[in-house]
Amino acid sequence: MSDKFKTMEDKLGLDKFKAFEKTHLKIKEGVDAHKLVEGKLFICPAKVYELNDKGEAIVSFENCLECGTCRVAAPDEIEWEYPQGGYGVTFRFG
Amino acid sequence: MGAEEKFDLIIVGGGPAGLTAAHVAAKAGLQVILLERGEFCGSKNVFGGIFFTNVMREIMPDFEKDAPLERVVTRRRWSLMTPDGEMAGEFRFNKFAEAPHNNSYTVLRAKFDKWFADKAEEAGAMIITGAVVDDFITENGAIKGVKARMDDGDIYGDMIILADGVNSLLAKKIGLHRELPAVSTIVGVKEVIALPEEKILDRFGVEGSHGAAYEYFGYAARGAIGSGFIYTNRDTLSVGVGGTIASLIEHKLNSNDLLEDFKKHPVIAPLIKGGEQKEYSAHLIPDMGYNGLSKLYADNVMVAGDAAGFVNASLYHEGTNLAMETGKIAGEAAVMAKEKNDFSSASTSQYEKRLKETFALKDMKKFRNLPKTLEHSPQLFEKYPKIMEEFVRDMFTVDGEPKGKKQARLIKRLLKQESMFGFIKTALDVRRVIL
Ligand SMILES: Cc1cc2nc3c(=O)[nH]c(=O)nc-3n(C[C@H](O)[C@H](O)[C@H](O)COP(=O)(O)OP(=O)(O)OC[C@H]3O[C@@H](n4cnc5c(N)ncnc54)[C@H](O)[C@@H]3O)c2cc1C
Ligand code: SF4
What we know:
The complex is a heterodimer. By secondary structure, chain A is of the alpha+beta class.
């Protein structure tokens, strides 16, 4: 038993992922990605959308928990589809 | 699938809604194919939670023999969380440990849905996993089947039941519902935390195979519109919190940070202390209520479960049994349509007609004002919990002040923070929509 709980990055390490070669999440062309991440996509439970040092949006689709929160938060600004069947996250508990 | 092959019924999604429809229709002799995008049924599914088994008992009376059930819920507790503490009410009935077990079991969906899928296969349904359906096959405007993103993924069938869950991209595609609104869609984040069985029994005051469900309202989501939970499994706890997407954005709260804070809250921390995290997950809950239900049928198509918006988010927190009931009625409607060899909306509309007679649609209707009331009562999630905490804590503070004087002073202070009218109106509104 541990005394300290794991936080984000380590927590995602508990889950089973099978990454597909192609992303299933895209910020649409012409959208101010920086503003979108700061204004809405920061709520993602896996922090998939983050800004790098240069303020550009990074989309770590391989960590996606496939909840759909970003899709509902920004329906007009992102393209969202399910990953290829059998890929993505596999919950062992659920 | 060869083009010559055609099914009576195609079901998209292997959660409780789809699996129930598959079980019912296959058992009645229909040629049923179910397509599930996950590696196995349950591999993408997350809930609290309590699986309410009233419909399971109808379709499979002996399910308790081998279903992967965690604990029978004999104790439910509702707490109004405040920033520093809580005020709670609960029931505990050992009678609920006896058959029919109040139809309330904690389960883990990856195991449970997988087991359920095996049963649907035994009933005669064909289940294809790793198959994500992206679109419909249409001919002259009529829906003839679905397109799965895989080799030979064009699948033909007379009828389609969409049981593809809360993000029902397919129901949206054919205009049966609009996009989920951010104000009434909840994102739930959850951890499964392992704890030795004796510790679970001691901490949650239950015995043997009994279990507890703790639900947290008020300040559970740091002022956002949301709630939290702990459910006891055999040797793990399901711990989670959720809030509407709109209010998390408004409060600038990341949903994982919310869970981290919830776990550190003084009333939660001692309950989970020393546990070992096993899994982290997230999932949406459609909380639009009755007025936000999708259109339930079209020619050749019916929509069941979360895909249609069937969740009762009142104090009862039911989704699994509504998914099963709608899946069951949709499956039965498909059987009737096959008998008549009529798959037009004249037939599929029977689904809605029959649903009106069931608890599924009646309960949705009874609680139809809940989402609006919560949305329009942000005071329930921050202001009132804070006021209540102050009031109750000071009322019970032992300091030698005469009780009469203390009460008068506190009531006066309370009414400075909110008018009696405001309290009573909110209390009545809430009472009306949650019970
Ligand atoms: C945090 C949380 C707590 C909850 N707590 C409770 C609780 O305690 N009690 C309760 O009764 N309910 C609870 N619910 C609600 C309950 O989980 C749902 O109402 C229920 O699972 C709905 O069942 P369903 O079959 O309609 O959808 P799902 O269980 O979501 O199943 C949909 C299935 O379709 C598959 N799928 C989706 N799209 C496609 C596609 N395009 N192609 C192929 N397959 C696809 C998915 O992988 C999934 O297997 C909770 C929900 C959440 C998120
Ligand atoms: S689907 Fe959920 S986990 Fe995936 S990127 Fe969107 S918000 Fe994040």
